[in-house]
Amino acid sequence: MATKDHSADLFEFLLRMGDNTLILGHRVSEWCGHAPVLEEDIALANTALDLIGQTQLWLGLAGEVEGQGRSADDLAFLRDAWDFRNVLLVELPNGDFGQTLMRQFLFDAWQELMLDALKGSSDARVAEIAAKAAKEVAYHVERSGDTVIGLGDGTEESHARMQAALDYLYPYVGEMFESDAVDAAMAQAGIAPDPASLRDAYDAKLAAVMGEATLSTPDDRFTHNGGRTGRMHTEHLGHILTSMQWLQRAYPGASW
Amino acid sequence: MYAQMIKTAGTGVKPREEMTPEEAAFQDRIDADIKIEPKDWMPDEYRATLVRQIGQHAHSEIVGQLPEGNWITRAPTLERKAILLAKVQDEAGHGLYLYCAAETLGVSRDELTEDLLSGRMKYSSIFNYPTLNWADIGAVGWLVDGAAIMNQVPLQRTSYGPYSRAMIRICKEESFHQRQGYDIMMKMAQGTEAQKKMAQDALNRFWYPSLMMFGPSDKESVHSAQSMAWKIKIDSNDELRQRFVDQTVPQAEYLGLTVPDDKLKWNEERGHYDFSEPDWTEFFNVLKGKGPCNTERMNGRKRAWEDGAWVRDGLMAHAQKRAARKVAAE
């Protein structure tokens, strides 16, 4: 059987995985030293740390697949916004602690399903990264879900803040389940699932957690998109890259 | 060393003939290196001094997250970002152990936090200095953690059990941090001209504030003498400072960096380096709130605490609801 060369699509897919964790890890790391309570500070740093670790694996493999000699650091620090492939959800600002944890839960619940499917990837390297990351994400989703429940079903104020966070973030959820030619190629090669196939399980998880949190998920399924295809990011990404890439850009070629 | 200028409660070392039988037995245990545990009898002054010292140390860990946290989003590689995140997370963990150690003396974490935010309690002067270039992250690990270790290694033998055990855990992580800091300095010192400049600039700014971490000379202090008798202070400030200078100068030389002190010179006779004292006027100004970042740091902590009130209240309310539901279901 002739094997089709998937490397361009695989590269694109790996950027999507790695850019999601890179940008979310960056966002979460902004909390370090500023959380409402010490245990949360530690937990947020831990989450960011896991995400940055996953980024090293995804982008490392992306560079290898691309075959142009680019390292994970080159991909993280030397691409401009239009080359990033993360979903818009992860680049949205932290807002208050509730918005950060709501964004985390909405992402974690997706990532858990995605990684679970990727553990059976036909590409052993992908399956290996997924198996490692899945262990970390199982904890992330448990924690972010519990916090969404605790704050949703907490005081009147915490409930109102969590509902506002969900209302603001929900229009960014749909992008995680969109499919394009890259996804079709990945699905056909047995490397990754069609994202759309994860939606039902996601909706069930969301319904269970939001129900316990006494929060209402908006009916409108409209979604902003453009991040994972690189068509159009939010204005926020440029600012993230400005600080993240500053040293690498200001002192090209230096070793750190 | 994150506890500076801790005022020892009481009026100095009590002579044995003036001790009550309880006090004498307490001192005997300390002299025999038997740890004091939370449920043991202890003099009120011992308890009060320890609360001050451990509390100040805990606050220093928490405020100390801020200058390093300042560079997390700008760390130059994924690995450096991960290392820095892990380090700042460790500092938060140290704060947690220390607040727990203080709780065994009957003071809650919330009470200590209120004391920090109201200015009744202090944190180490060093964290009122800014981190301005990436080499500062190396310098903080190398010099600031290096100075902290000088004090904390002996404190592993301190008389109060929970404090001693916290110190043992903390010291392991701090030595790791110091090596990571020095590793950043090596990269910078062996790097491009711009990186060398960053490294020298970081050393220039952090040298004297690091020497200040040990506090002014306490040779004459009766308060220190009592704390030493209780083994909650093990070495004098001057001894620790000298040890730090002796250890650090060769490391700076190895990096090819210049310690910003014209008078720095090896003294063959003493077997130690001679060095210039830091500017103690500056030190006392920093303690009074007039350091470069005091306002910034305190505002940062206040904002985190105040902005987080709704989260703490919400999670508490939820825990109560769940407990009530559980009772109702039974």
Automatic annotation (TrEMBL), chain A:
<dbReference type="InterPro" id="IPR012347">
    <property type="entry name" value="Ferritin-like"/>
</dbReference>
<protein>
    <submittedName>
        <fullName>Phenylacetate-CoA oxygenase subunit PaaC</fullName>
    </submittedName>
</protein>
<dbReference type="InterPro" id="IPR011882">
    <property type="entry name" value="PaaC"/>
</dbReference>
<dbReference type="InterPro" id="IPR007814">
    <property type="entry name" value="PaaA_PaaC"/>
</dbReference>
<dbReference type="Pfam" id="PF05138">
    <property type="entry name" value="PaaA_PaaC"/>
</dbReference>
<dbReference type="InterPro" id="IPR009078">
    <property type="entry name" value="Ferritin-like_SF"/>
</dbReference>
<dbReference type="InterPro" id="IPR052703">
    <property type="entry name" value="Aromatic_CoA_ox/epox"/>
</dbReference>
<dbReference type="GO" id="GO:0005829">
    <property type="term" value="C:cytosol"/>
</dbReference>
<dbReference type="GO" id="GO:0010124">
    <property type="term" value="P:phenylacetate catabolic process"/>
</dbReference>
Automatic annotation (TrEMBL), chain B:
<protein>
    <submittedName>
        <fullName>1,2-phenylacetyl-CoA epoxidase subunit A</fullName>
        <ecNumber>1.14.13.149</ecNumber>
    </submittedName>
</protein>
<dbReference type="Pfam" id="PF05138">
    <property type="entry name" value="PaaA_PaaC"/>
</dbReference>
<dbReference type="GO" id="GO:0097266">
    <property type="term" value="F:phenylacetyl-CoA 1,2-epoxidase activity"/>
</dbReference>
<dbReference type="InterPro" id="IPR052703">
    <property type="entry name" value="Aromatic_CoA_ox/epox"/>
</dbReference>
<dbReference type="GO" id="GO:0010124">
    <property type="term" value="P:phenylacetate catabolic process"/>
</dbReference>
<dbReference type="InterPro" id="IPR012347">
    <property type="entry name" value="Ferritin-like"/>
</dbReference>
<dbReference type="InterPro" id="IPR009078">
    <property type="entry name" value="Ferritin-like_SF"/>
</dbReference>
<dbReference type="InterPro" id="IPR011881">
    <property type="entry name" value="PaaA"/>
</dbReference>
<dbReference type="InterPro" id="IPR007814">
    <property type="entry name" value="PaaA_PaaC"/>
</dbReference>
<keyword id="KW-0560">Oxidoreductase</keyword>
<dbReference type="GO" id="GO:0005829">
    <property type="term" value="C:cytosol"/>
</dbReference>
